[in-house]
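In response to reviewer comment 3 from the previous cycle, which asked for concrete evidence that the modeling workflow produces usable outputs, we include below a single protein chain processed end to end. The sequence was submitted unchanged, and the resulting structure tokens are shown without manual editing.
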Amino acid sequence: MYIEGSHLIIAEILLKNCDDGDFLKMIAEYELSRESDERLYVSLNQDGECPMHFHRKIELVYIQSGHKKIFCDDKEFLLEEDQIFVADSYSMHSYEKSKDSKQIIIVIPNHMLRDYYLLYSDFKFKSCVLLDKDLCREMKPLFLSIAKKNPNPLINQGRIDLLMGYIINTIGLEKREESFDNRFIEEVLAYIQENYKEEITLDSLAEHFNYSKYYFSRMFNNYLHTNITNYLSMIRLQAAIELLKAGESNVSDAALEAGFSSIQTFYRAAKKHYKYDKIKDLINIGSKITDIANFTEDDDPSIIKKLNAMSEDGE
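The workflow returned the following structure tokens.
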């Protein structure tokens, strides 16, 4: 049975009960293929946009003009011209499209951060934003020179080192709660990426990597600022949405194929984690709902009434 307009009802389900203060309620994605890309990424005089994601690399955004809304580790920032955003290793971050803003965006590959990792592996930035416009303007020539990518790699490396030095001196560093082990988090994320469709729990992950579940949980939360359950939900939501966008699966099949134990679990995760402009992904899906009976009134009575009414109209 196909319910006309059911994709809009899915959108309403996802929009309801969204807490505007919880900025982890967006899809987060660890892109292993991009993590292995060792090229220096630069975008100049453009308005950048990216979904919630994270990586080991350091990402820098200089606001050249206008205003830019940026989300990072459960916080929202509205940056102005001549202010800087710094995404530390494994910090969840995203930024939306802007009407009046241009930025310089630099993603520094890991091989150009070797000295930084060697000297400061047990530290993190005290803040992800630099708001002092005078200090930011002093760094702007370095941003511009890096963006031009000198053919001499030693000059590029020197400019990166100098810029990182300025940022460290300006923002400051603080000791991490746990010693930072890149291999730990990279191996865990790679394992989850390969096995998210299977049943994965905190206990099974801790056993697989030979840690106590309490130590494993603390390490994971410290690196990613979220827990295993939330991270798995976000990865599975991304997979389910890609299946739905491909137009070959209904909601139930996509949810189960992505690793959710039931359609109810998918709906609860979607309501919890999905918000902002990403809702357009589902509004454009137009997929079929064949399992209304499995979505109970305990989840959302008003939605159930609409689904049932549409079902009766379509019969």
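Confidence is low (pLDDT under 50) at residues 1-28, 275-297, 306-315. We consider this sufficient to address the reviewer's concern, and the full set will be provided in the supplementary archive.
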